[in-house]
Structures
1.
Amino acid sequence: MATVLAGCGGDDKTKPTAEGTPKQGGGLTMSLPGDSTSLDPYATSFVNVADGSRMSALYDSLVYADPLTGSVRPQLAESLSISGAKSDTWQLKLRPGVKFSDGSPFDAEAVRFNWDRHKDPKVRSFQASAAMNLAQLTVVDPLTLDIKLVSENANFDHLVARSLTFIASPVALKANPGGIGDKPVGAGPFKLERWERGVRQTFVRNPEYWQKDKGLPHLDKLTINVDTNVDHSIQEVENGNIDLTVAVDPLAAAQAQDKKLGVQRISLNGGQMVMFNTTFGPFKDLQARRAVVNALSSTEINDKFFAGEGTPAKGIFAAASPVANIQLAASENDKERAKQLFDNVTAGGTKKLKFTYMVPQAPASIRVAEYIKSILDTYPGVEMEVKIVDIATYVTTVRAGNETWAVALNQNWIDDPEPGIYDFLHSGSLQNNSNYSNPAVDAALEEARRTTDPIKRRDAYTRVQLQVNKDMPYWVYQEALAAAVYGPGVTGIQLINDGVVLWDRIGTAK
């Protein structure tokens, strides 16, 4: 479902390459656009611009989605596969000899404890929606966990890769359940050494790492800085002050390539979108949602803010996805229709349509939000305010399902539609932040999750696209992109899931 374009720059040998064997030792510095909400896998988002790469460094992955193939590959696990006649029964096999950084065993009981904890409503886990699929977990032996699901899911391995892959030490969780956010204990290649809030985190090699006999990780030290300005981060890579950053802005990725930096891209489902709260505020009204969408143009936004370097979206599925149907793009850029709808909602401008548009603190996102405001404010009775918040606040407000927002920028980076599209749109999902509900969409999503047949999946997702176009809970204006931008001193980069770094591969060039 995703395509990786290695940043070798064709025949241009002056650009860095992700390929090569790293030397042993040394350190790298990465920048991300926000500080961690927490380093507890129950209390943070695993996406590329949030804490995905931090979690990968601290906890490693049970399994991960490979963007090159769309398949799920084992890491801490040896295998994760269907074990019964139907896809509601799976079995997880773990590698022997793995330990957490506190020396306790990474075993089937540890996975069971973590996954059951995600289900506990008192924990309020960010991954609770994924854990709701777990009916029964049985420890067969120290390395084997039998999994019974609530219902069939032929794509459960994708769900684990995205939402249940980071496992914390049960010993640490039991000793101090609330403290693991500051003092994480995982089985990953690194341990947290220091956290300067809002500035940087410093990680050092984990001496208990399961691949230590192979000399992994290659690095002795990893530093992750906070820099809310991706343009500045890319300049810092060019200047040699940092080694690596992640960009989700296509213009920033294109500019990095022009600077002859290394760029490794992943094209994904999801995208940058205007997301409406369908149960709170003025956008409970379908006419108001349609009015906003018809007032705007994805092509204009791409040309004006991404210099034509991005891809105007045709919906939540990337055009290159085998389940996409780009003929099913939502209606947009119809100014006369927008005026008619706004007149209906505002009674000809006499009744105010006043709302706040929430946007995370990122320069490119803010510029687009201000442009949207300039367009919508031209309609009589429409008043939009842009509210800029840091990423941590955004995550705990919009992504945590807080109902007190009306409309927000939303960015989804989804490799396989399962579980990302299901989580975003199914009425029973705790990650359905727009509170959207439609029985026909729910049925189609459930059908898609029960099969791996590409034709059947495409048919089911086509029904999703058709109904969502009618209901308009969101409007995607830019296809999703994740790109690692790196300097010449970096090699061995491998991105997983939606653009998370796999830290046992990366290092400094020889």
2.
Amino acid sequence: MAQPAFSLTDPEAKGLAVVGLTKRFGHTLAVDHLAFEVSPHQILALLGPNGAGKTTTLMCLAGLLRPDSGHITWQGVELGPSRGRQVALIGETPEVYGMLTVWEHMVFVGRACRLEAGWRGRAEQLLQRLGMWERRDLLGEALSKGMRQRLLIAAALLAATPILLLDEPMVGLDPRGQRELRNLLVEVSDQGTAVVVSTHLLANVQSFCDRLLILNQGRVAAAGGLRELLSRHGHETLEETFLEIVE
């Protein structure tokens, strides 16, 4: 399978830039020379079948996995192993501190990130919008998977890192929670955050993502805006386009 032609439109673009990202696990090539960029004020949907390399890519971006080769930069500066001030990752499996309450999680983020005065009001607002304010005194160990997901989303948004990565964030959320999360992601994007969302829920992608990056076997199979991809492949729906690309 030939590597599709794909290069950065502007090597000096200010934002998140990934060039030649490669990651192996033994003899398995999980990510194969990926190249893409995400500008501030932009939401990128990372799509692909199971095993396409989406989660591995996010973990490399977050610094949780060390790539075998490639460069990851923000505003033209290479991101080092410690990039917690620049990148927040919400993983597919929501892990919280079992002996901290919901509110104590928010306090921990506020103090650890040395947020400016007024963060408590922002924390309360986030918990309210995600349906967690009434549960603010519950311990993490008492939360369902969906509640843990909402808490981690609230905490990540409170941290206000310039890069926000989300791996299957809609899983475990009810329709109201999914809609509120979409609204929040659009808001933080409008404020200048570069957002990358990995998901299998194609219907959600169409409603709030600016660009799509489709991976297959660790490589970029297609990239562009929704209308651009539909027009290029001659389909009316993202599902039809996606299936043609990956199959």
